[in-house]
Amino acid sequence: MSGPSPTPVHEPARQRVLRAARQALRVLAVELGTPTEPGTPLFGSVQNPWLRRLPYLVAFGFAVSLLPTTITILGHDYGLNGGLAGALATAQTAPLLLAVTRPLQAWWVIFTADILCAMALTGADGVAGRAWPWPPMVIVGYLALMVALSLRERSRTLIAVWLTTGVAGILFEPRTPDGSVGTWVLLFVLTGVVLMMGATLRERGDAQRKLIEQETISEAERARRTLLEERTRIARELHDVVAHHMSVITVQADSAPYRLSGLPREAEEEFGSIAATARESLAEMRRLLGVLRSEETERHGGPEKAPQPGIGMLPKLVEGTVRAGVPVELSLPEDQVPLEPAVDLSAYRIVQEALANVVRHAPGARTRVSVTTAADGSRLTVLVVNSPPPAPSAPLETTGTGHGLIGMRERVRLVDGSLDTGPLPDGGFRVAAQLPLSPPPAPAASLSPKDSGSV
Questions:
Q1: Rounded distance, CA 137 to CA 132, Å?
Q2: Is the CB of residue 284 less than 8 Å from the CB of residue 295?
Q3: Which end of the chain has the least Cβ crowding within 10 Å, N or C?
């Protein structure tokens, strides 16, 4: 049989209080002994150099003004010895310079000096009728230190400093000299107000800084998303161009044995292999396009069936823009120039986006669209220039998403061209693109000794 259960031992209330007090003192010591970012000056991250120097100037001003004042008041008014008054005044004011970079360490020095000063003033001859335990200049210097402390340290440390200040005043209360004016309550209240205001300002600044960082990250993500969307749209458009060529290759390879008589069996097998490879590549491209197409496009009937536009459709585009209220002049090459599908499509899209920007941001502005070819036939120049909008008109959009210019750059980069955009001195805008009419030459392959010998 098991014995009787042990009777629970109730801890005396005195021991519970002592244990709670020891734990509170341990937390207090940790908070008061762990500074935040020691060595980093206040306002160190501010871009303005004058604001970065401001804490040093303020600390220097307080130290220079309080040091002689404190020596004079302690020695002349309170009757302390001159050497003791000078030492205490130096310990109470000089650490204000340290508060710019290490406010918590400065608080330890100043608070200890204030305690020693209060003990020295207890038996001073001139304390009657004057402030005690904290003289006026001590209060001013301590509050200046609280400002620096509240801008740097965390809330728990500020609460620990505030409570320590109040406890010191309470401990001095029984030793108040006769006829003196108690100031510990005043300092305790003012310290709490200054610490609370400083902490509020610091937290507000931190919140604004984090908000700016998030806005910067969001802007970068938005720009990246815009770029990816434009590249996806270009890839969808170029799919039809490439798919057309792949389909032609497949048909030609399949029909070659029937169109060309007397082909060797090896040649027929080679054409069959080419046709199979082309069909497989075309199927892979269609699968890739299915990933690139948006859900909205798929819901509206799948892949687009309309042919991709080119500069031959610019007159129709200009006609629609004129109906939208923008007077446009169009100039095209007199002789029809054969263009690669990618170049033809890029030229059309650049003009389309430039005219759309004019409609949105400069409605009613006179616009000139010019498409010319170089004399040597090496490149195609697309130029869209608009004048300032009429005075009574207001832009339909004051800010843009950036899709237009990003899309232009991507299309120009795709064909290895160049793009120049920017405002004009008279208030208009210019878009100029240089598109090569022939693809860039492939790097020449080095000939092996065997190849060079067979020539």
A1: 11
A2: no
A3: N
